[in-house]
Amino acid sequence: MRLKxxxxxxxxxxxSALAFAQDAGAETAAQSxxxxxxxxxxxxxxxxxxxxxxxxxxxxxxxxLLLYVLRLxxxxxxxxxxxxxxxxxxxxxxxxxxxxxxxxxxAERG
Length: 110
Fold this sequence. Notes:
mainly alpha
């Protein structure tokens, strides 16, 4: 318990010492630029082709939607196949059960 408290105190003291070790008077390049005013002539415009980006975005969404629908069709086909196999198994089991019941009746009579 005391070891944990000592470790926490050392970490807190070490991090505060690192903060004081930095030179408070030194400015970074980003800080010095942010305090300066730079005049700009003319309007600022973006040079991004919006129409092409819109068409590409719609194309990507369309392709993803198409792939999703194709996947759903494949899953549905697989489910239909599985249900058909299960139906055949149930029919075979019903026929086997009916044949077994008929044989049991014959055995009782015979």
